[in-house]
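[[Encoded backbone]]
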Amino acid sequence: MTQTSNWKEVKGKIKEKFGKLSDSDIEGLNGHMDRLQGMVQKTYNYSEDKAKQECKDFNEPVKK
């Protein structure tokens, strides 16, 4: 699988988990998963710790 197709798959999973994020938000990540926490924190009005945990929980199955 190419890196591009991997990113497409991950984008779909982000949209599924974090449905409040717009398509342009997800496109804006541009593969930089380190930006996801800030977007989740802002969009969902989560504390930093809550956003960090949500992203950690999301990333675990993605890395496998």
